[in-house]
Each structure stands twice: as C-alpha cells, then as structure tokens.
Design brief:
Blueprint: H1 7-11, E1 16-18, E2 27-31, H2 32-36, H3 39-45, H4 51-66, E3 70-75, H5 81-95, H6 114-130, E4 134-136, H7 141-150, E5 156-158, E6 171-176, E7 184-188, H8 189-196, H9 200-210, H10 224-231, H11 239-248, H12 253-265, H13 289-294, H14 320-347, H15 354-361, H16 383-394, H17 398-419, E8 430-441, E9 444-453, E10 465-467, E11 477-480, E12 494-498, E13 501-508, H18 510-516, H19 518-548, H20 562-565, H21 569-587, H22 606-613
Parallel strand pairs: 2-3, 2-5, 3-4, 5-6, 8-11, 10-12
Antiparallel strand pairs: 1-7, 6-7, 8-9, 9-13, 12-13
C-alpha cells in the first residue's frame, strides 16, 4: 500500500516506461513480499502447486537472463507495533468490525501468519540455491530497498509500496510487464520534485495527513488533494515543524496562514490603497451613469456623441479598485481554507506521530551502515541441489528444471567469457557453434544461438521441445509477438537438427554475444551482408528477365486472369456480338444520326452486355 489516498494515481502521469534493456548490468533491489503476495492471483487463475515458488523460480530467471539485471532480494524483518496495529485494524475494517475500541499492547510486535512466513522461507531457500544475495531488513523490506538505492548499492527498487520514496528511494519500479515493448514502469524522485514541487519531507507530511501503512486514518477530513495543496504552502525544512506547532497550538493558526497567504497571493500594486469607487450601471466602469450619458468614459473608447457601450454578460471591471477587492476576497478565501485545515489538524489527537517520522527519516534499516562496505556477490547456482529442491516441492522432473535453468546458465557463461575468454563449455556439455539468425520479440532484437553438445550424460539430459528444422528455410529476421501466461514462464530452448547434428537453440542478448564472441558476430554479419547482396542481384536479374518476357502467359511471378488459361465460348460470343454491334454503328454514321458518337462494345452499359451474353 504505502501512502493512502490513491497516491500512485498522483504519480502516474510522471511515470517513465523503459525498454527491456533498462536494467541490463544494473543492480536492483527486489521486495520479495511484493512477489509472494501475488501467488493468490495465480491460484485464482490456475491451480498450481506452491505458486509462490513457481513465480519466484521463473521471475528470477527472467530478471537475470532476459533483462540482464543483478537482483538483490530483501525480506521483511520484525514489524513495528504501529504496523501490527494498522494491519489488525485493516483486517477488521475489511471484515466490517468496529475498530474504535481496538487495543493493542504497546511495544508488542505481531509477527505475520505462519503460512506467509513459511512461503518466505521457502523462497529464500530457492534464491540462495540460485546464488542470489538475500538481505533481511530490520523492519520493512521497502525501507531497506530504499536505503540501498539512496546509498548507491543498487540502481533501482522493485516494489509496489509507495512509501519507498519516504524512506529515501531515488528510482522505484512499480510494475514489470515482461510481455510488452516497455516492460518497466519507473518512477524517479527527481521527476516528482520537478513536476509536483514535492521533496521527501513533503511526502512524509502528506502520508501523515492522508494515512499510511502505520496509521490508516491520518487526519479526518483531509484527502490527498487538500493535503497536497497544504504542504506546498511550506518549504521542506519547515513543513514538519509547522505540523507540530499547528497540532500543539503553540502559535496562532491564523498568523501562520496569513504569513503564507501573503507570500503567495499578494502582488505589488502601483496605486495606493483606496476605497472602492462607484461604477456606472451601463458600462460597468468607474463613474456615474449620468456623467457617462453626457460623455463616454475613458475605458469604453467610444466617441463623445455615442456615449458608453452596455456591458456584456459576465463583465469584470479591471480598474485598480476592483482588482484590489478581488485580491482581498481571494486572500480571505485562502485564509479561511487554511484556518479550517489547521483546525482539523489541531483537533486530531497524537498528531503528528514522531515515531512514524523518525522511522521514515532513519537510515538504518539493515545490519549495516552507510560507512560499511556492503559486499553483494552473485554465485553460480547449485544445480544438483536446486533440482532436488524443485523435485521435492513442485514434483518437477530433473530434466524440466535443467531445461528452464538453461537461459540463466547461458547468461552466466557469456558474462564469464566476456570478462575472461577461456576454453570452457556451457554446463560442461555445450560449446558455442554459431549464430543462427536475428530474432525480434516485442520490438527487441536478440541472437538465436546454436549450442553443440559435446558429451552425453544420462543423469543430466535436458528435455526440450524437439523441432525438425533442417528442411525449413531459415529467415534472417524472425518476428515473434506471443503472450506468455501470467506466471512469467518463458519459452523453453529448442532443438535444431542440421545434417544429422543436433543443436540447442537459445535467445541471447546481442551485446553480450558481441562481448563474448566478437569474431563470431563479425562472421555472422559478413555472411548476412553477402546473402543480402546475392538476394539483391538475384532480384535484379529476375526483374530484367520478367521485363523481356512480360508478354509471355507463362510468367511465374505474375498471376494471369483465369480466362487467359481457360477460354470460354461465352466470352468469344460476346466479342463477336460486340464487333457486330460496332460495325452496325459505323454503318449508321452516314444516316441522320451523324452527330452521335461512335458506339463501342466496351462503352455499353452493364445491363446491355449481360443481355448480349445470354442471347
């Protein structure tokens, strides 16, 4: 949830939709709870065994291999007593129970339910087998994600809790849609500051007014729009102090709002202050109606003999007296509005909550500080143990697990080859053979790589979808725009058979292949250019041949009419009758109808030609 009052809708216009390479070679902190809670949606859509493990399995592989990110997973620690009280209040509110008399012991933290904690523990075990770094927060996971982002340990956070900005996050990825051209919905704090003129303490003040995960109610009668307008009246350095002063009543609220309104609304006026003068009821300008009958006023701009013009509907006088009166009314309106807001704030008990403010401003949400050198490392997966783990929990066959892990293993192999070229094999069995073609998926290009198997081990066979492609013409560029299921299960590797040899096909990033095998990329591009030049020459030769034999009915590139292949007796009869009719019209030219045009069979109406056809 995060900040209440539909806070994400306020930030929605300033979201950036980034492409699939946005997180490539970047570190990203992932709120693991954000993934786990989505397993309920998976259960509603399809019945699968332990969907939280399935989601974590496929999303980790896609995030690491498909998007090229380096994920750091963060789990929740012990929730605060405020969070526990708010969670219980939310449960009773959704259940329709009155929570006015609800009491929770101070200083007592309520752990999450055991079922959720078990799901978290299983996902953590899976991620550790993947070799991913997993950190545990002291309290909220999004708080530690924000701290990692603010201190530069990661480049972005993946979480749906909007209060990550209150904890100091700089870039938050709210939503990941892998089956689109722009899968990442990103929010940058710099855009929020520039477009909405809101700093971090402004956001904290808004959360205190409209409610948050630790205080669901906020201030009664103040919504997001009203809170946004109120906090903009103060600078970042004074907004929290002003909330304390207004709530405590230590300074008169009217003096505070008068000072603010004076800075916002008042503008310098050239003429000195004066009382409002009388205005003409005819034209609406300063002066009397009797005087304007004799001579027009200076505002109307008409001749003296014509007099003033009658004012139109919705007329507003722009004289100094009227402008001053309108400004005073607007100022009084704003003062009254600020007074009402201040009265609502002062009427709220225990506002603002200093514990919530200190929690948002704290920068110690993990077992390290900003001065510590946090070491984040990514290890190679423990394949054998991971296969046994998924077999035990998901009842998956070992070959299926190895098959789905192959994109992650190939990404690790290519990164190692790009960093330090050496003679090694993918998974100890496959060697790089060649680049088959360029593949375009959702507007993103990638190479289809052929891996040749060198050894055969009975216990490590990878089951794939065998596809006989030796007789199929291979295109240079293949576009695919398919929709995967909501569990983010990616396309499995396929088998390509060529001249009796079996190859494994995977989709790899083009820059990663260029860094690992630059010579192979140059060879592929050279062969591609040769094929393109031959194709251009062949098409030019065929075009010349078709020009020379354009009259031939046996052309292979031009589809002739059906009547040119099968001559019909009716068509011949039509031509004969049309010729007779044309000759008859020529004989009639010497008669009295010489002024008529020459009749042609092609100019006859369709109805006449139809009657001639069936004569």
């Amino acid at each position: 949830m995060g900040v209440g009052g539909k806070f994400w809708d306020l930030l929605k216009p300033y979201a950036r939709h980034e492409g699939p390479d946005y997180l490539r070679e970047k570190r990203v902190a992932v709120d693991l709870s954000y993934w786990i809670v989505q397993h309920e949606t998976a259960i509603k859509a399809t019945h699968v065994r332990k969907p939280h493990l399935r989601l974590t399995f496929f999303r980790t592989i896609n995030l690491f291999s498909k998007f090229g990110a380096l994920p750091v997973f963060v789990v929740d620690g012990t929730p605060s007593s405020l969070k526990s009280r708010a969670r219980i209040a939310r449960f009773f509110r959704f259940s329709g129970v009155d929570v006015s008399g609800l009491l929770v012991a101070e200083g007592v933290s309520s752990e999450r339910n055991k079922t959720f904690l078990k799901c978290v523990q299983e996902c953590v075990e899976l991620l550790e087998l993947f070799g991913m770094p997993v950190l545990k927060a002291n309290g909220e996971a999004e708080a530690l994600c924000a701290q990692l982002n603010a201190e530069g340990h990661v480049d972005a956070c993946i979480t749906a809790d909007s209060d990550a900005f209150l904890f100091g996050a700089k870039c938050v990825i709210k939503c990941v849609k892998p089956n689109t051209k722009e899968p990442f919905e990103c929010y940058h704090i710099s855009d929020v500051e520039d477009c909405l003129d809101l700093k971090r303490k402004h956001l904290i003040a808004i959360s205190l007014l409209v409610g948050n995960d630790h205080d669901l109610n906020g201030v009664q009668g103040i919504g997001l729009e009203k809170a946004l307008r109120f906090v903009r009246s103060f600078s970042e350095d004074e907004i929290l102090n002003q909330l304390h002063e207004i709530a405590n009543g230590s300074s008169p609220s009217l003096q505070i709002v008068s000072k603010v309104v004076d800075e916002i609304m008042l503008c310098p006026v050239a003429s000195p202050a004066m009382s409002k003068t009388s205005h003409c009821s005819l034209c609406g300008h300063p002066g009397s109606k009797r005087a304007h009958f004799k001579s027009s006023c200076e505002y109307c701009g008409t001749s003296t003999s014509q007099g003033c013009t009658r004012k139109g509907e919705g007329f507003k006088c722009n004289c100094s007296s009227c402008n001053k009166g309108r400004k005073e009314k607007e100022q009084q309106k704003h003062e009254n509005w600020h007074v009402k807001v201040c009265n609502k704030i002062s009427a709220e008990p225990n506002f603002p909550n200093d514990d919530i403010i200190q929690m948002y401003l704290c920068n110690k949400h993990g077992n390290f500080t900003a001065d510590d050198d946090l070491c984040l490392s990514w290890r190679c997966p423990d394949i054998d143990i991971l296969v046994d783990f998924m077999d035990f929990h998901q009842h998956w066959e070992p070959s299926y697990v190895r098959q789905r892990m192959l994109p992650m293993l190939s990404t690790i192999y290519l990164r190692e080859m790009a960093a330090k070229p050496q003679k090694s094999m993918l998974y100890g069995q496959y060697v790089f053979d060649s680049i088959q073609r360029v593949k375009i998926r959702y507007g993103h290009q990638s190479y289809v790589i052929r891996w040749r198997k060198m050894t055969s081990t009975a216990g490590s066979i990878i089951r794939t979808n065998s596809v006989e492609e030796s007789d199929k013409p291979q295109e240079e560029i293949v576009e695919i725009d398919e929709f995967n299921d909501h569990l983010d299960e990616d396309t499995a590797p396929q088998i390509h058979i060529d001249d009796g040899c079996c190859f494994l096909l995977t989709d790899e990033n083009m820059e990663l292949i260029r860094g690992a095998f630059p010579e192979e990329v140059e060879r592929f591009l050279h062969e591609k250019e040769l094929k393109a030049s031959k194709r251009r020459k062949g098409s030019g030769f065929k075009n010349e041949g078709s020009d020379e034999k354009s009259e031939s009915p046996k052309s292979k590139r031009v589809q002739l009419k059906l009547t040119e292949f099968y001559q019909s007796a009716k068509v011949a009869a039509i031509h004969t009758k049309q010729g007779d009719l044309a000759s008859y019209s020529e004989n009639q030219e010497d008669g009295p109808s010489k002024e008529k045009k020459k009749v042609s069979g092609s100019n006859l109406p369709k109805s006449v030609r139809r009657r001639l056809l069936f004569m």
